[in-house]
Amino acid sequence: MAETSADTLVTHNTEELNCGTSKDDGGVSHTQKGIPLSRKLCYAIGGAPYQMTANAKGFFMQIFLLDVVQMDAFYVSLILFMGRAWDAISDPLVGYVVSKSSRTRIGKLIPWLVFTMPFGVLTYIMLWFTPKDTMSPAFSFTWYFTMCCLFDTFMSCYHVPYSSLNMFLGGDQKDRDSATGYRMGVEMFGTLAGAAIQGQIVGVYHAKKAQACSQMNLTGDLLPNQTLPLTDTLQNTRRAYVIAAVILGVLYFLCCLVLFLGVKEQLAPLSTLDRIRIPYLTGMKMVVKHSPYVRLVFGFLFASLAFQMAQGNFALFCTHAAGLGAYFQHLVLILLTAATLSVPLWQTLLVKLGKKTTIFIGLSVYVPTLVIIASVQSNLPVYIIMSILAGSSLASLYLLPWSMLPDVVDDFKIKNPNSKDLEPIFYSCYVFFNKFGGGLSVGISTMALHFAGYKPGACRHNASVITTLRVLFAPVPIALLLVGMVMFYFYPINEARRLQIKEELRKAT
Fold first, then answer.
1. Which of 74, 68, 123 is nearest to 239 (CA)?
2. Are the CB atoms for 312 and 442 separated by under 8 Å?
3. 347 closest CA partner among 392, 400, 401, 303
4. Are 232 and 479 a contacting pair, CB within 8 Å?
5. If DSSP codes are grouped into helix, strand and coil, which group holds residue 30?
6. Of 16, 146, 221, 230, which residue is most buried, by most CB within 10 angstroms?
């Protein structure tokens, strides 16, 4: 392609900065040329809350419920799986409700972000709060399952319209890809910030527990499945999780404020930003019958499922299988730092090589990385190197599928010019499959650990638990990733088709 990486990445383009806009009623602006740099940055910052909270949950929720709340693994699996299943189901419903909503003075999509944000912040904090020192299994399950479902619902009301907003920033395909690059860079930084805040605040207490277990092991007092007594360290750990949640909640609010002040919705080709007139099931059928969308979605589903399977078990794997429990929060930070720094690399490659080729390269890096991590024990330097490679591969999964989705929506609009304003449904179904995969991965993982004999709070586990962790961390994710790569192979929109879509949209405008 003729696009240059300098323009696609963080470039201070004076033409973008001087781009004028004129506003009509309903809070919608008509962009005259390109997307201003300030709008790209404000849009990108708005994506940080979802990644901060989602990855804090992804890395820490399982170990929080098992070793801090000390809930039985069976109930943890129900919360993680049913909570994510509810989250996934709510996304298409939210997408349809957003599509049916009318424009307001501040737009159609942005009001959803602004008015659901306070509820999202509150329920996120409550998700990490332990109401009692000792809770009955029924009360504990009800509390965390309710908070999980409420938070995920409010986050869907934020993330679905936010992701759909990518289609209404103005500009053409090149501008949207550039905005997506900014967004993924900031989202990876948000992921890093969330894991850093959560990990550094709570990690010290997990390290103390690992040290106590190690001392008991050295003295010969440690038996399989033996737990430590309820101590002040555990109480402090619970308090630390709440403090971390409050800090992330404040950042959630600030990022939403920046988005609200810096982004105005723009009309896109063949879109009106008005409420849709077709029934819910009709709109869903049209979306799922679009072949490029189906192949992209299932490729994203299996690849995301692979990454989330490994991610969800990373803390437990490091703690109980690799003997690096005192270092796992540092490995998480290294992984996410590498992912953040790798986004510009993948953005440059997608411009030069095309999106399909780039995603194959990025995902392929993950396979040998998982094999080496699962094969090596208690070797911190090797884990550091592999965490860097895994983070780089993770960045490609963040960037490429989300960069490919607008092309699919444009292809649909060209083929169905009379079906307008279905963008929220496209994006909500995309998020649905991602979240469903995440719920499936943690549910299966925790249920497998339950049947393997995992005992919450134990310092040392039997051999079947360790074997289960190794299988869940490498062989299963690798198999899922290979299926996802096959799906991406049959994805039909290559660079030639993208240019054809761009020209057809230009003629239709």
1. 68
2. yes
3. 400
4. no
5. strand
6. 16
Half-sphere exposure of 241 toward its Cβ, with a 13 Å CA cutoff?
27
Rounded Cα gap, residues 80 and 332, in angstroms? 21
What does the DSSP assignment read for 112-180?
Answer: HHHHHHHHHHHHHHHHT--S-SS--HHHHHHHHHHHHHHHHHHHHHHHHHHHHGGGGS-S-HHHHHHHH
SS3 of residue 21 by DSSP = strand
Q: Residue 191 and residue 84: Cα distance in Å, rounded?
A: 19
**Residue 201 near residue 128 (C-beta atoms within 8 A):** no
What pTM was computed for the model? 0.68
Return the residue matching tokens 């919608």: 28
Identify the three-state secondary structure at position 42: helix
Q: For 23, list phi and psi in degrees, rounded to 5.
A: -110, 145
For the beta sheet containing 28-31, the strands, ordered from the edge strand earlier in sequence to the opposite edge, are 21-23, 28-31, 265-266
Q: Summarize pLDDT for 418-457 with one digit per residue, the tens.
A: 777 777 778 877 777 777 777 677 778 878 888 888 876 6
CA dist 68 and 57 (Å) reads 14
Give 184-235 as a DSSP string: HHHHHHHHHHHHHHHHHHHHHHHHHHHHHHHHHHHTT---TT-B----HHHH
Rounded CA-CA distance 485/25 in Å is: 45
pLDDT tens-digit profile of 36-56? 889 999 999 999 998 888 878
Residue 401, CA distances (Å) to 274, 340, 469 in order: 27, 16, 28
C-alpha 66/C-alpha 263 separation (Å) is: 41
- Left (φ > 0), alpha (ψ -120 to 50) or beta: where does 137 sit? alpha
Buried b or exposed e, range 363-375, using 16+ CB within 10 angstroms: bebbbebbebbbe
